[in-house]
Amino acid sequence: MIQCPRCGIQVTELHPVEPDLIAKLQAAGEANLPPQVCAGCISDLRRTLAATSGGVLMQQERAKEQHRQQLWKSRVLLVKKARLCMSQKLYADAAVNYEKYLKILDIVFDVKKGERLKPEAFKDTARTTELTVVASVYWDLLRIYDTHEKYGDRMANAAKQLALFIQFTPIYPDIIRKAESFQKSAKNPQIVKQFLKLSDKERPRCFIATSAFANPQSPEVLSLREFRDFTLRNSKAGRRFIAVYYRISPRVACLLDKHTWLKPAVRAFLRFMIKCVS
After folding, report:
1. To bridge 167 with a disulfide, which of 183, 203, 227, 240 should be the other Cys (CB 3.0-4.6 Å)?
2. Of 154, 168, 147, 153, whose CA–CA distance to 228 is shortest?
3. In this structure, is residue 90 part of a structural domain?
4. What is the pLDDT of residues 159-192, one digit of tens each?
5. Bridge partner list, 15
6. Using CA atoms, how far apart are residues 66 and 73, in angstroms rounded to an integer?
7. Is residue 73 in some structural domain?
């Protein structure tokens, strides 16, 4: 019988501890490991390593989440700095701060390399208001990058992202009006023109709600649009409902426009639906 140098139990044979296992345990804080131990100690060491590794992973994930939270808080200051630079016509500094802000969003929402930030990332109700901030940032970047020909690619990218995000914000009509005016003086008017086309193409209409409330930017229309984009589109049944809705809704909207006395009842029904899905 042989005594195990680790646990002291008498056993028939000892087993060599794998160098890789020793190295990992030492890195985790286990010191003075004997080169040979009993079979029971081998199993115990492996369990210890698994538990230690799990703890390390949890600590790493916790640290990452804390880092994300710190970055999320710091984004506000970056936007304020950028807008101050815009007011002082320090466009290069404004662009740097805006790009840092967008980089923070990429980190917070785990945007993969080569991919772009999408509105779907802001499904959390507490963060949907950030969509308006993102749209305003891309609008400023579009104008900043128009100041020099070498920034054409960046301007085009800002235009595409702006068209994607603006449809979910109440500043849509205001930005469209500004873009139509800006197109006349822009150094790259074709990019602005492409933005206008793309923003109109990307923006699906809520025909019935728009007709009932007589304002495409009313809180009720925006709430229904948000429910459509962030809830219905996530399921097959929801997408099917949207397809049917867009087939019949234009005719219903026309009916409402002809018979305006129906609109109060439709508005009441839609408000009830909003309460149900909120």
Report:
1. 203
2. 168
3. no
4. 999 998 887 777 877 898 899 999 999 999 999 9
5. 37
6. 11
7. no
